[in-house]
TrEMBL record:
Domain Pyruvate carboxyltransferase: 31-307
Source organism (scientific name): Phragmitibacter flavus
GO molecular function: 2-isopropylmalate synthase activity; acetyl-CoA C-acetyltransferase activity; magnesium ion binding
Similarity remark: Belongs to the alpha-IPM synthase/homocitrate synthase family. LeuA type 2 subfamily.
Record-given protein name: 2-isopropylmalate synthase
Length: 558
């Protein structure tokens, strides 16, 4: 690294646009989406997809709702050519889907591309040549004029050939890309694009796609937006063009560049699922589309089973979607930290009480259910977690609704154990910890038998309890079964205690019991100690909760 990088690098000179309009606009409608997974995504893979992988990914893209799909570079290899033929001859392209093919401005390659498309209903022939100063000088060794001639010649070669497609009923659209547009002087990008338009003669009824790629990100997204606004404002016959964006992610701002480029007036967006593509990737369409969705804009794409889309993508491309990928990653919704979990739980509870409405749950930008994810993935527990997360998992997985005070008591118990384990714990493990701490507290006291009957005024109980393994037969009375049991225990020499809180509820199936009771007791020494009991009978669950509480009192008094 250089201590003064200015001796080697310099900032890209931005276009002068003092009256730029894009910063005060908002995005209120979705652009035309074009997936380039099967072309730009594919060309970036160490092992490009074979025909059957491309067919599977194509079917998934169609299912997601893409109406324009760049299916390949058919002049590049037999696999690419064959893929087009399979799509067309097997009738795999739905009526409303247009396939697009990339080709350089080279006659033999254009010829092969046209051949590969024979029989399709509608196609986009995407021709490009590179226009930036470095490309002109080092790669092509050509003047600006010569570079314009390459593009013009290419457009003519396409135009001369399309009658063969049109005669057999294929609708052809030309897409032209001045490749490396974002590193090209805007005046030259306009000049070369207009030269291609002069050949193609687009009209508002038969528009040409002008794709302005951020082939390599050389500046911030605002600079790209200025370039797009400049082009949209200055290019002739704007109404005969569909202005398209194609960003990469070299500076990590591909999505931002596209969003600002749309504000700047573009109509169409090219990109790939999860951002696969050359170097740091293409624009991530999932991210861009879902960003619009979370602002309430209909996107015309369907990611309601995001995991399935991710699974096909990973299998076909061999790439992995990072766990923290926006919308697609395994951890997109997940909160480990306590205060986040607490806020999410409260937000979700409030939403449930309210019965829906506008989404405003803290820390969750969208409802996991919208993309086929589950609330249970949202909160996961490790040593950074708090009582809220623990309570959420016990409730969502097992229907155990811990009273708030008990959450406060059990939270630190669970946290100590999770910290000791040094890893994430499952809901089942938390339940095990909870059972061990409360429900399975049967020492020194263990209930063997309990029976109570009485009137509204007075209940009498007969009970047998093991105390340190020795059975004791006890009786007691009170204004209910719990009070009668407490009376029996205290009379038998157990510490005096008062029941200060009592809750119970039915347990969901799968927990092995039908009722759970929570009891808080107070002794002269201890202000608040909880006990929990589960049983098929509500009454017995409450009595067991008293035993649990008293066992915990005795443990604390040791
Ligand atoms: C930014 C992008 O993603 S652009 C898309 C890039 N995609 C790919 O490269 C994948 C598909 N491409 C290929 O498989 C191959 O490059 C092929 C089949 C198209 C061409 O292969 P080849 O002719 O053997 O080799 P190569 O690509 O090296 O040819 C480069 C030549 O084409 C010229 N060329 C490159 N791009 C273009 C273009 N868009 N229009 C016209 N000529 C071009 C170069 O100047 C060079 O000319 P030279 O041989 O006189 O120096
Ligand atoms: C061919 C063009 C659109 C391209 O892939 C790029 O510039 O990245």
């Amino acid at each position: 690294m250089l201590s003064d990088p200015s001796s080697k690098y310099r900032a890209f000179a931005p276009v002068s646009l003092p009256n730029r309009q894009w910063p005060s606009r908002t995005l209120t409608k979705a652009p035309i989406w074009c997936s380039v997974d099967l072309r730009d995504g594919n060309q970036a893979l160490a092992v490009p997809m074979n025909v059957s992988q491309k067919l599977e990914l194509f079917a998934t893209l169609v299912k997601c709702g893409f109406k324009e799909i760049e299916v390949g570079f058919p002049s590049a290899s037999n696999t690419e050519f064959e893929f087009n033929r399979r799509l067309i001859e097997d009738g795999r392209i739905p009526e409303d889907v247009t396939i697009q093919c990339l080709v350089q401005a080279r006659e033999d390659l254009i010829e092969k591309t046209v051949l590969s498309l024979m029989g399709a209903k509608q196609v986009i022939i995407h021709m490009y040549n590179s226009t930036s100063p470095a490309q002109r000088e080092y790669v092509f060794g050509m003047s600006k004029q010569q570079i314009v001639e390459v593009a013009v010649r290419g457009a003519k070669w396409v135009k001369e050939r399309i009658h063969r497609l049109e005669e057999s009923g294929t609708k052809v659209t030309l897409q032209y890309s001045p490749e490396s547009f974002s590193a090209t002087e805007v005046e030259f990008a306009k000049e070369i694009s207009e030269a291609v338009m002069d050949v193609w003669q687009p009209t508002p009824e038969r528009r040409m796609i002008l794709n302005l790629p951020d082939t390599v990100e050389v500046a911030g997204p605002n600079v790209y937006a200025d370039q797009i606004e400049w082009m949209c404002t200055n290019i002739k016959n704007r109404e005969s063009l569909i202005v398209s964006l194609h960003t990469h992610n070299d500076r990590g701002t591909g999505t931002a560049a596209t969003e600002l480029g749309l504000l700047a007036g573009a109509d169409r967006v090219e990109g790939t699922l999860f951002g696969n593509g050359e170097r740091t990737g293409n624009l991530d369409i999932v991210q861009t589309a879902m960003n619009l969705y979370m602002h309430g804009v209909p996107i015309g794409l369907d990611f309601s089973d995001m995991n399935a889309v991710r699974e096909v993508y990973e299998r076909c491309t061999g790439m992995t979607v990072p766990a923290r990928h926006p919308y697609g990653g395994e951890l997109f919704f997940t909160a480990f930290s306590g205060s986040h979990q607490d806020a999410i739980k409260k937000g979700l509870d409030a939403r449930e009480k309210r019965g829906g409405g506008v989404w405003d749950v803290p820390y969750l930008t969208i409802d996991p259910k919208d993309i086929g994810r589950e609330y249970r993935e949202v909160i996961r527990v490790n040593s950074q977690s708090g009582k809220g997360g623990v309570a959420y998992l016990l409730e969502s997985e097992f229907g155990i609704e811990l009273p708030k005070e008990l959450q406060r008591e059990f939270g630190p118990v669970a946290n100590d154990e999770v910290d000791r384990l040094g890893r994430e714990v499952t809901a089942a493990e938390l339940k095990e910890m909870f059972w061990k701490e409360y429900v399975e507290r049967v020492s020194p006291l263990e209930l063997k038998h309990f029976h109570a009957d009485g009137t509204k005024e007075v209940f009498r109980c007969r009970t047998s309890v093991f105390v340190d393994g020795e059975e004791q037969h006890l009786t007691g009375e009170g204004n209910g079964p719990i009070a009668a049991f407490a009376d029996a225990l205290i009379a038998a020499g157990q510490p005096a205690f008062q029941v200060t809180d009592y809750r119970e509820h039915a347990l969901s199936a799968g927990t092995g019991a039908s009722a759970i009771s929570y009891i808080r007791v107070q002794t002269p020494e201890l202000k608040s100690v909880w006990g929990v009991g589960v049983d098929t009978s509500i009454e017995l669950s409450s009595i067991k909760a008293v035993v649990s509480a008293l066992n915990r009192v005795l443990a604390k008094m040791k």
